[in-house]
Amino acid sequence: MASAPRKWHWIVRLSHWTTVVLLVPLFYTGLTGRMGHFSPSETHANLGVALLVVLLVRLLTKTVVARPAGYRSRISALVQAALYVVLFGLLVSGVAAVQNTAFLPRATVLGGLEIPTLGLVQPQLAGLVHRWMGYVLIGLVGLHVASAIWRWIGDRSFLSRIV
Ligand code: HEM
Ligand code: HEM
Q1: How many independent structural domains does the chain possess?
Q2: 2 in a structural domain
Q3: What's the 119 CA to ligand 1 centre distance in angstroms?
Q4: Burial class (CB in 10 A: 0-12, 13-18, 19+), 120
Q5: Which pTM was predicted?
Q6: Containing structural domain, residue 155
Q7: 37 pLDDT exceeds 70?
Q8: Of 77, 93, 98, 122, which residue has the fewest beta carbons closer than 10 angstroms?
Q9: What does each C-alpha distance from 151 to 4, 12, 23, 70, 146 come to in angstroms?
C-alpha cells in the first residue's frame, strides 16, 4: 500500500483557506444586509453560492485523496464533521429564510435571478435558525483553531498539513 502523504491534497488545502476567507464577508454582509426585510443582499447570496461550490469541490476531492499521516482524535473528527454540517445548515437555512413576497424587495442571486422560496418552514423561524447556526459556527471554529494550535505546540510541523 502507498504510504500516506504528509499534506492534504492541494485542492483540499486551497479550498480550506478559501472557505475561511469567504466566511469573513459572509458574516459581514449577513450582519449589515437588508435584515429589516428578511432578505439577504445579493452579495450575501452570491457569497453563499461561492461557498457551496467550494464545499462541494472539497468534499468530492476528499472522497478520492488520502488523509495525511498522523493521529486524529475522535473529538477533532467530530468538530470537523460538525463544521461541515453547520456550513451546509447555514446555506439551507439562509435560503429558507428568504421571503420573496409581493410586499418586499425581491431577493436575488447571480445577477438578478430571484431566489426560490422553499416554503418548507416559516421564514422567520429559518432566519432564527440561521442566526443561531452562525453563533454555533463561531464556537466550532474556536474549538477547531484552539485544537490546531494545541497540536502545533506539540508538533511544529502540524499546521503544514493544511498550508
Ligand atoms: C472558518 C474557519 C475554518 C473552518 C470552517 C475550517 C474547517 C476545517 C475542516 C472541515 C477540516 C477537516 C479537513 C477538511 O475537510 O479540509 C479542517 C482541517 C484543518 N484545519 Fe481548519 N477550518 C477553519 C479555520 C482554520 C484555521 C484558522 C486553522 C489554523 C489555525 C485551521 C487549521 C486546520 C488544520 C491544521 C487542519 C488539518 C487537520 C487534520 O488534518 O486532521 N483551520 N478545517
Ligand atoms: C455559510 C454561509 C452563511 C453565513 C455564515 C451567513 C451568515 C449570516 C449572518 C451572520 C446573518 C445575520 C443574522 C442576524 O443577525 O439575524 C445572516 C442573515 C441572513 N442570511 Fe445568511 N449566511 C450564510 C449564507 C446565506 C445564504 C446562502 C442565504 C440565502 C441565499 C442567506 C440568507 C440570509 C438571510 C435571508 C438573512 C436574514 C435573516 C433574518 O433577518 O432573519 N445566508 N446570515
Answers
A1: 1
A2: no
A3: 34
A4: exposed
A5: 0.93
A6: 10-161
A7: no
A8: 77
A9: 19, 19, 24, 11, 9
